[in-house]
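COMPLEX REQUEST
Ligand: cytidine-5'-triphosphate
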Amino acid sequence: MTPSSPLEGKHIVLGICGGIAAYKSVSLLRLFIKAGAEVQVVITPAGKQFITPVTLSALSHKPVVSEFFTANTGEWHSHVDLGMWADCMVIAPATASTIGKMANGIADNMLVTTYLSAKSQVFVAPAMDLDMMAHPSTTRNIDLLRSYGNIIIEPEDGYLASGLVGKGRMEEPENILKVVEQFFEKASDKTLKGKKVLITAGPTYEKIDPVRFIGNFSTGKMGFALAAEFARRGADVTLVAGPVSLPTPDHNIRRIDVMSAREMLEACETECGDSDYAVMCAAVADYAPENELDRKIKREHEDVPVLRLKKNPDIAATLGRMKREGQTLVGFALETDHELEHAVEKLQRKNLDFIVLNSMRTPGAGFGTDTNAVTIISRDGTKAEIGLKSKAEVASDIIDNII
Ligand code: CTP
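STATUS: Structure written out below.
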């Protein structure tokens, strides 16, 4: 046993599907056991055609689960209990068929029902032939899993069982182990304890009259994911949220709900003083109606009403001017063209330390999605590209970069 492994004492459900890479699951199981984890193997009926339950139960010291009950004794195997027992679930290899079932909730075997019951982190290591891997159905299903917060351990390029060469080889067991270990290492990371963080999230609504507003499509998901990750790492988080319909992701987060840019600015000015990190993730409306009407604009007007606008305050730039020694100010930029140029210009103009660039041109990234892809640009010009991942993972990468 490796005494220092973050997997020591952890409960892992290892899901094995019917693919040739199932032979590698034996090594993965051994590595988990060596690292001190308790492993329950759940295998699909097709999986048993590739690797025998005897090998797996001998190595895991537990009977392998495959069916909903044991035929001769009638013993019921509860996927709900297994889902609750698991500190994480690792599905390796994950075949196209199982990935499709997981993405769409087709619970016709023990592995998929356990997946649907699991409350903990799920890791998915696909393995299949290159054309199956590249099929739009597979890529869409993998994107769906990612959007549910599952961590996809991408397959490698290489020789495949079919004799073809391409992307589809299951990641090597040693590397899967590393990904799972890193996850638990991070989970116990409380290095931001004592740090104060201010985050803005969501859109702002600028009232036109009592029933109408100027707003934008921001849902607040990225800002809420950042708040959750900062809080998980022990930081003391204040989340200034525009009008969004998201629950507060962690009971330790102090949430201030606001409506307009002006209200958001007031909350930020009050809260920013002693914060170590201020992350401006909100999509603040740049303009507000010059006058907010106290009565609804009626249709019977002879002329089409003309809406005069005034400039809203720039919250990030205001905090940039107030910034004190030791404070880190992070902004976001959502651009449709000349992305890098605009982002760097904003970083300088607003006196930011980092700017996180979202591109409207990346499918799966931006407003309302559960995934994102960003470039983090620092004041000294260093750039870190974060490929398409769940917003939770992107939040973690952003924090790794800025701290
Ligand atoms: N921001 C802000 N207050 C505003 C406008 C933007 O705090 N009134 C912040 C955003 O939260 C983001 C950064 O500034 O962190 C960049 O926002 P963005 O809308 O991309 O930039 P703008 O300055 O509004 O420029 P433009 O809309 O012209 O691209």
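REMARKS: The mean pLDDT is 93. The chain has two domains: 11-187, 196-402.
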